[in-house]
Amino acid sequence: MTTYPPTAPLQDPDLSQELLTVPQVMARLQLGRSAVYDLLRSGQLASITLGRARRIPAHALTDFIRARIEQEAAA
């Protein structure tokens, strides 16, 4: 039986590498599933795929919100 050493804990206390599920993003943005997938499909919101699971890095969500705020302010 192969054993692996324990992984090191994240050094970044703000968990900037946290991966969110689509339902978590739906809740944070208060949007429906289709709207979130439209953002993913259009490239406005970055994501990664792990197997069949879609995950959104927390920093990508923060970047998306910041960009939308800047767009609104410029208009």
From TrEMBL:
Transmembrane segments: none annotated. Residues 19-68 form the Helix-turn-helix domain. One of its GO terms (molecular function) is DNA binding. InterPro entries: HTH_17, SinI_DNA-bd. It holds the Pfam family HTH_17. It comes from the Bacteria. This is Helix-turn-helix domain-containing protein. It comes from Streptomyces purpureus.
